[in-house]
Amino acid sequence: MKIDIKELRDMIDDEIKKLIVLPDWRPPPGQFDRSTQLGQTNPDIVKYVNNMFQKLGILNAATKYNKYNDLKVTNVVLHIAKPTDENWKQFLYDCKTVTKTTNLHIDPKENVMKAMMYLNDITEDDGPFGYVEKS
User: Fold this and answer.
1) What range defines the domain where residue 44 resides?
2) What pLDDT is recorded for position 122?
3) Distance in angstroms between the alpha carbons of the first and the last residue of the chain
4) Is the pTM of this model over 0.85?
């Protein structure tokens, strides 16, 4: 689904600029190479994304999938990903080889759903996210 994110990009442009210039580093477990919790610096971002997801029907669909336990956006994390990022192998630095399934995982949290919104145009070959059919 492609949506107009210009207004959102304008709201977070300063944060994007701060993160994009950060050098590569080896983050500890639980952190990304370049990320920030936008809701902590600007709670209006969380409200904005919640309203966007409400208007697009995303929250309604997620709530139905969640057996009608109401869901809402409670956190927004801006993550600038680069090909040189190291966070995906935080627990695997000692591995001698890296397979295509190295970081395949699920997030088994009740009443929590994640949504990823790319802030740039992508193709099927972009991004770290994949879906395993019948999983």
Assistant:
1) 1-122
2) 79
3) 21
4) no
